[in-house]
Write a structure and sequence with these properties.
This protein is of the alpha/beta class. Strand 3 and strand 4 form a beta hairpin.
């Protein structure tokens, strides 16, 4: 049974999750959630039992010194809470439950059920999973981010792409399907990382994921040094590409293909949306049009989590013999 007596009442909570491993090209997704924890000073309130889900020969524990005392950090998944805004401030009060860990080595259904147990207990309204994949995209252009869901109603409400992917999947895809089966609205944001520069970190992709999260939830996220890190990363890759004529030619061909594909997007509506994003990021708060576009049933309701936990039957049993999850898993 999950005990959360030490966790304060949450307002309109949304769970944001990312996992290191197969669904985290360039560590872009896990770094994005780590950024949220740092900027909003997340407070860890729970950690999953490492022995239940991880093979320590694959994900080894770390030994470190704490004032001369040797300690062990076990690979696991931790949950933290960040509190945004205030009841009387310019930014509406909103809480996030952050989930950051490593893709489990075993018992994925139990893993997802445990995450969903926390979500139900905390009254989470929606789960947003961040992922990153390798793609044929040039590092010189904006990072493509795709927003997908397996929920037909949510796809229609938020104008999202409904997942049609078939093939191998990772924990990101399985968690999204588990949410769907449990009746929890879930969205996955996928950033495409250039396959020719796949090594971490990739601050440009992390930045793109956070901007998409802003748009989805109608939040203003403090970006800190991330924009500068993204520019420095691109300059570094530019220099490396310039040293190899074959790589430079390949990047140019990707740029031409990307620019051709993006031409239809240069519409008045697209420009207006980009200007709206600019205003929100500049002011650090939602713009007037964001409340209706984000998944927020009643922004002023001050809704807190339910006192009574739903029955086990309401939580679902996790994916069993399901179809795969998100595209390009």
């Amino acid at each position: 049974m999950i005990e959360l007596d030490g966790v304060p009442e949450l307002v309109d909570p949304v769970m944001v999750a990312a996992f290191e491993g197969w669904n985290d090209a360039g560590d872009a997704a896990s770094a994005a959630v780590a950024h949220l924890e740092r900027e909003w000073k997340g407070e860890v309130f729970a950690a999953l039992d490492a022995e239940d889900y991880y093979d320590f020969q694959v994900n080894r524990p770390h030994i470190w010194l704490d004032g001369g005392v040797r300690r062990v950090t076990w690979p696991t998944t931790r949950l933290s809470v960040v509190r945004i805004g205030s009841e009387h401030g310019p930014v509406k009060r909103r809480d996030l439950v952050l989930v950051r860990g490593i893709e489990p080595s075993m018992r994925w259904r139990s893993f997802c059920n445990e995450i969903l147990g926390f979500a139900h207990e905390l009254g989470v309204e929606m789960v947003v999973v961040l992922g990153a994949l390798l793609g044929d995209t040039p590092h010189t252009r904006p990072v493509p981010v795709t927003s997908v869901t397996s929920d037909e109603d949510l796809a229609r409400t938020l104008d999202l792409e409904e997942s049609r992917y078939e093939g191998p999947t990772g924990i990101v895809g399985i968690l999204q399907e588990a949410c769907t089966h449990a009746g929890v609205p879930a969205v996955t944001l996928w950033a495409a990382v250039p396959h020719y520069v796949a090594q971490p970190p990739n601050p440009k992709a992390s930045l793109a994921l956070l901007h998409s999260l802003e748009d989805l939830l109608g939040l203003g996220i403090p970006m800190g040094d991330l924009p500068d890190d993204a520019r420095a990363w691109q300059i570094g890759v530019d220099q490396l590409a310039a040293e190899d004529s074959e790589v430079a030619d390949y990047v140019k061909s990707l740029e031409e293909a990307r620019d051709t594909a993006d031409l239809p997007e240069a519409t008045g509506e697209a420009i207006a949306k980009e200007f709206e994003r600019y205003l929100r990021r500049r002011d650090g708060q939602p713009s007037a049009g964001d409340a209706s576009g984000s998944y927020l049933r009643d922004p002023g309701s001050g809704r807190t989590r339910p006192r009574k936990r739903p029955s086990e039957g309401d939580q679902g049993q996790g994916p069993q013999d399901q179809g795969p999850g998100d595209p390009d898993d």
